[in-house]
């Protein structure tokens, strides 16, 4: 007989197959098949198809488009087809793949109907319980936990047959599961749990993440995976749906082309995908290799007028190019939380947020506090904010109160209609009005500053502020990772955020490194730290020669409009002209970057004006492209990519191998930013290849629920990924090219091998084909080496047909 612990453990292990899902307000892009990253990619794709019914490869039409426009090099494809025993007949392969598209073996109609009924009932109760403040009449008994709340409340649900029996369930959910599965041998239980956890992967993923996060909502209204499974099994029993469905009589059709391959472990789609990726990667690697050779002869251009540090986000690549063209400016890339894992309490926010990557836990609590001498500015801000909040609360109460809703519509209907018409017909004018209003109301950064000083007696569950040693460590780490040796008069740390209206997925357009929050606060914290004289003195002792005249400034890049706002409201007179010139040049850069983005979104003209319209238009389904198009990640000095238009497709992390003799900085980049970018890349990949299963379908039919997710239509599973409008220019015209991430690192290959040997998880991802890695080695005549498997490398060459070399001893073949 299984114990409670056995049941909990079985459920936890089975739930690993379902990827985590974050609530809408902090949406984080993640791999929906993260639970299968310990398997080769094509095996994970097959598992995803079995469990979730999702396609894991681009369609034949997507491959055909790429082939016809030259995105897949014929020589690369031919070589890879030969390696896996396929005949070199691309058109035949495309026709074969097209013929197999749409094959979808399914369960019987009766089985599907009963299971759908269970899904509908579970969805209703999960939505009621997991609501985060949207419901005006919250579900009773939530504080007792999901299992108890449903057991005591759902007995009044007339849609559940014989619902009174729910009250007879054991008080312990594990005991309930044991009773409900009494007719099934324990050897079948893992399969039962897998079936029920995978039935609603969106809700399961949200429960998983809520439990793992253990935040305020979980503390107030707890839910467990065991309680979730117990409720589902109980409803399944009452509805008469199968606990353990037998295997469908129809077996899955073989993957196109398998019958002709000598290596039946690799499907044809995998071969085509890898050829497409290699074709993109070769162009990127060639550019980096050529630039690596050129940097040897390059001379030091002296101290720049200013240095900008942007997030490694692909959208930063565009604005960086345009900034560099306006003056003697350097730009650098660094993870957008600027290396400080903090919980940030904004002045205007009701709750603090963890502004750091999901793979990290917040280590510090930092709140805004009023700066000295800014009482009048704060009073003006508070007055406007109170008026706005009061008006919003009154309108919300009138609309949702049954006694006042109709009279409210009669009284305010014409005004509401005019406002809606303006938003629909004149969104750019609306943007102007809102912008003018914003200028009249002081922002919180004009009278607040982050409280970075350590406070030992603060009543928080995290250390408040930072000690001097911690401040110095975070600042030094940033400069070490980026390989800095000199500092300009002005150094700008620019976080990023998006601006969009009526978009439930708006947090997906903010900073992923800040867990779906704006990056401006993180930039402010690091700038505040670096401006402290005590920190500068310690940095000089550690070898960073920070001049006395260097001023650190925070800012935020609006990725929708490409405006870069500098949080420099109290600039010393000595730097007033520098900052004024920066602001003027940033406007020039914005015009060029906005025009480029507008053209990418299909606008014939408009530039900055078009991006402003999209930001304010409540009916705009595509305010910006986000990270769509991402395919590459370059880790190295900006000089390697400065002369190239990377089309906003590459993450860029600054790194100088010559200042990192022990490889510590590169190891930190591999363990952090590279992992996060792989998450982002796989989210975009899977949401593109199957938007219905791994994405969230069309925004047009989205229905937000409980501030935690969206339905398609009026119910069902939570959608787990990005919407169609973030991925495609039209329903049948993809914008994002579904390629796995190609990382290119400028460093000695032996150093990279040593790092991989110490990081089993990253090596596993590479060995299983979840991303690729190429090293351009400046110590070996700037030659490129491509990672194969088992810590082995091959000299990069067209078609990738060189044979592997022994670990740590890459050799260069004669040309």
List the helices and strands and how they pair.
Elements: H1 4-15, H2 41-52, H3 60-68, H4 74-83, H5 90-100, H6 109-130, H7 146-153, H8 173-180, H9 189-199, H10 201-213, H11 216-220, H12 225-239, H13 268-297, E1 306-310, H14 314-324, E2 329-333, E3 342-345, E4 353-355, E5 364-370, H15 375-400, H16 405-425, H17 427-440, E6 448-450, H18 468-482, E7 490-497, H19 520-531, H20 533-541, E8 551-558, E9 564-566, H21 576-600, H22 608-616, E10 632-635, E11 650-653, H23 664-671, H24 673-689, H25 691-694, E12 702-705, E13 709-712, E14 728-730, E15 733-734, E16 741-746, H26 749-758, H27 760-767, E17 771-777, E18 783-787, E19 793-795
Parallel strand pairs: 1-2, 1-7, 3-5, 7-8, 10-11, 10-16, 16-17
Antiparallel strand pairs: 3-4, 5-6, 8-9, 12-13, 14-15, 17-18, 18-19
Ranges with pLDDT <50 over ≥5 residues? 247-263, 798-815
Instruction: State the separation between the terminal residues, measured CA to CA.
Output: 67 Å
Q: Largest beta sheet: what is the strand line-up?
A: 11-10-16-17-18-19
Mean model confidence by pLDDT? 87
Task: Note the total helix count.
Answer: 27
Q: Decide which structural class fits the backbone.
A: alpha/beta
How many strands appear in the DSSP assignment? Answer: 19
Percent of sequence in beta strands? 5-15%
**Backbone CA Rg:** 28 Å
Identify the overall geometry. Answer: globular
Largest sheet: 6 strands, mixed
The percent of residues in helical segments reads 40-55%
């Amino acid at each position: 007989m299984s114990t409670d612990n056995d049941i909990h453990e079985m459920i936890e292990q089975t739930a690993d197959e379902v990827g985590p899902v974050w609530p809408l307000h902090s949406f984080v892009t993640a791999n929906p098949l993260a639970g299968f990253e310990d398997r080769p990619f094509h095996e994970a794709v097959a598992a995803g198809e079995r469990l979730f019914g999702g396609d894991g490869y681009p369609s034949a039409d997507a491959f055909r488009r790429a082939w016809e426009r030259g995105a897949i090099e014929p020589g690369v494809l031919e070589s890879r087809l030969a390696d896996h025993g396929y005949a070199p007949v691309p058109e035949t392969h495309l026709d074969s793949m097209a013929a197999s598209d749409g094959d979808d073996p399914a369960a019987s109609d009766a089985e599907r109907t009963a299971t759908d009924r269970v899904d509908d009932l579970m969805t209703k109760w999960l939505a009621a319980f997991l609501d985060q403040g949207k419901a005006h009449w919250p579900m009773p008994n939530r504080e007792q936990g999901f299992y108890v709340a449903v057991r005591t409340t759902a007995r009044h649900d007339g849609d559940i047959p014989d619902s009174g029996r729910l009250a007879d369930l054991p008080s312990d959910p594990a005991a309930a599961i044991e009773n409900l599965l009494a007719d099934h041998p324990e050897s079948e239980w893992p399969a039962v749990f897998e079936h029920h956890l995978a039935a609603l992967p969106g809700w399961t993923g949200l429960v998983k993440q809520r439990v793992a996060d253990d935040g305020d909502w979980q503390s107030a209204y707890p839910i467990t995976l065991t309680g979730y499974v117990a409720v589902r099994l109980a409803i399944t029993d009452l509805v008469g749906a199968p606990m353990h469905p037998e295997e469908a009589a129809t077996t899955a059709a073989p993957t196109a082309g398998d019958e002709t391959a000598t290596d039946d472990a690799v499907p044809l789609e995998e071969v085509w995908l890898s050829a497409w990726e290699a074709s993109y990667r070769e162009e990127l690697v060639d550019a980096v290799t050529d630039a690596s050779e050129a940097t040897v002869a390059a001379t030091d251009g002296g101290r720049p007028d200013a240095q900008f540090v942007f997030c490694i986000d692909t959208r930063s690549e565009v604005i960086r190019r345009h900034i560099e063209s306006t003056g003697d400016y350097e730009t650098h890339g660094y993870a957008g939380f600027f290396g400080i894992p903090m919980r940030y309490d904004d002045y205007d926010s009701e709750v603090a947020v963890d502004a750091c990557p999901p793979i990290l836990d917040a280590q510090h609590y930092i709140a805004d506090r009023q700066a000295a001498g800014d009482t009048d500015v704060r009073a003006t801000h508070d007055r406007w904010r109170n008026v706005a909040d009061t008006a919003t609360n009154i309108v919300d109460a009138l609309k949702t109160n049954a006694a006042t809703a109709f009279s409210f519509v009669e009284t305010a209907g014409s005004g509401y209609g005019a406002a809606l018409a303006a938003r629909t017909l004149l969104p750019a004018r609306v943007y102007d009005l809102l912008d003018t209003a914003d200028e009249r109301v002081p922002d919180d950064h004009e009278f607040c500053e982050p409280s970075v000083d350590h406070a030992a007696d603060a009543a928080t569950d995290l250390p408040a502020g930072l000690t001097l040693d911690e401040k110095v460590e975070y600042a030094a780490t940033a400069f070490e990772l980026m390989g800095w040796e000199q500092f300009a008069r002005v150094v700008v740390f620019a976080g990023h955020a998006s601006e969009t209206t009526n978009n439930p997925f708006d947090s997906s357009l903010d900073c992923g490194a800040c867990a779906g929050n704006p990056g401006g606060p993180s930039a402010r914290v690091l700038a505040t730290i670096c401006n402290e004289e005590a920190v500068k003195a310690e940095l000089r002792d550690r070898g960073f020669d920070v001049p006395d005249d260097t001023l650190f400034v925070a800012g935020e890049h609006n990725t929708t409009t490409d405006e870069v706002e500098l949080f420099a409201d109290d600039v010393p007179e000595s730097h007033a002209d520098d900052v004024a010139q920066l602001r003027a040049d940033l406007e020039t850069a914005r015009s060029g970057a906005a025009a480029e983005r507008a053209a990418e979104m299909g606008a014939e003209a408009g530039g900055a004006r078009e991006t402003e319209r999209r930001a304010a238009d409540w009916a705009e389904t595509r305010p910006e492209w986000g990270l769509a198009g991402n395919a590459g990640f370059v880790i190295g000095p900006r000089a390697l990519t400065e002369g190239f238009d990377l089309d906003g497709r590459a993450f860029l992390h600054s790194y100088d191998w010559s200042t990192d003799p022990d490889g510590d900085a590169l190891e930190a980049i591999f363990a952090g930013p590279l992992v996060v970018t792989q998450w982002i890349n796989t989210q975009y990949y899977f949401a593109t290849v199957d938007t219905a299963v791994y994405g969230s379908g069309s925004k047009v039919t989205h229905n937000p629920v409980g501030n935690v997710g969206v339905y398609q239509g009026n119910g069902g599973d939570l959608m787990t990924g990005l919407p169609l409008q973030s991925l495609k220019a039209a329903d049948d015209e993809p914008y994002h090219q579904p390629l796995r991430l190609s990382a290119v690192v400028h460093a000695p290959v032996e150093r990279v091998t040593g790092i991989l040997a110490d990081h089993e998880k990253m090596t596993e991802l590479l060995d299983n084909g979840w991303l690729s890695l190429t090293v351009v080695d400046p110590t070996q005549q700037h030659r490129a080496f491509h990672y194969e498997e088992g810590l082995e490398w091959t000299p990069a060459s067209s078609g990738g047909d060189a044979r592997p070399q022994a670990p740590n001893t890459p050799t260069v073949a004669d040309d």
